[in-house]
Protein 1
Amino acid sequence: MKVTSAEFVKSAFDRGHWTEDGLPEIAFLGRSNVGKSSLLNSLLGRKGLARTSNTPGRTQSINFFRVNEAFYFVDLPGYGFARVSKATRAGWGKMAEEYLSLREELVLSVHLVDSRHPPTDLDHQLNDWLVDNDKPHLVVATKSDKLSANALSKQIRLIGKSLEGSHVIPHSANTGKGKDLVWAEIVKAIEKP
């Protein structure tokens, strides 16, 4: 996919702020600090469009990025390690579930997991929800450049077994490995009738 334009459009804190132009949407979900912003920037070939941070839980809204004037990348709040109150964290979960449940424009959910670690309980919950609700999705195993080829191969098999019903693609924002495979799945989802 050739990216000719990519722009941040808006942050939404509730349904009333979601985009309304009916373009297809690709949602990016995962634990805080799993590399969502890095994946978005890697796919778009733009440094700093989605803000990266060393502090987990920086994304506190649903952020919409319009790509090629044809579809959206949607960055959802991370779950897990964010240093925020339980009430705030619960609010993010509710916001994300509402978006995933109700959004008709959503054509694909990209679930990010860290390739260096087994999926967490929250990763299992998200995967089960996506599978049980028949939501088109794929799993992207981030930070794959941090492992040897042999260790990565083992981890991808482990993640695939652990997150049943999900296609797993290893990706590295540093090397670009896996980028074309992720784009292929995104294009397929967008073009599906």
Note: The longest strand covers residues 106-114.
Protein 2
Amino acid sequence: MRPSDQKIYLASKSPRRRELLRQIGVNFELLMLREQTPRGPDVTESVQPDEPALQYVARVTREKAHCAQQLMLARKLPDHPILAADTTVTIDGRILGKPVDRNDAANMLQTLSGRTHQVLTNVLVVRGEDWWQTTQSSDVAFCKLSPQTIEAYCSTLEPYDKAGAYGIQGMAASFIELIAGSYSGIMGLPLFETAQLLQRAGIRIL
């Protein structure tokens, strides 16, 4: 077991990010942001007018990290580094976030069908007043999807709560002809970049 000074807080509810951190042996504790408060969620993921995807994903991650740091201080928790991340899908300058319903998911998949899109994952580690942040970008080429395939996929639980309405670690892997970039980044946490940031914050990986 690693010593307590090697623990981090993960400011994310994503089970995929937990799985990826465990893969590289990082000891973490969840620091969940609130989705329901009198003023709404701690962090909204709405896109600002004319906001480019790179700026969007970096801003949302900063907001998550800031809120998590405030929660840590308010709850008087032990001072550990905080890791926050956000992933988005972009194509033709459009940001494809999490689908709001089945029709939205189907429209997103139709947009991605037979084309190459980008998956951006921004990762931020904060320790005290020190912040380290980076964005990893991957290209993902989809095969042509038939209406029947899109309908069948949207009948599963996979497209929902995922940017771009698909998860590469599930059945949608059969849609992907080519990847240029980071598989773990497309899942939601690029492990090479994450390890580099954590090591700068004093967390040993190996």
Note: Residues 182 and 192 are 9 Å apart (CA to CA).
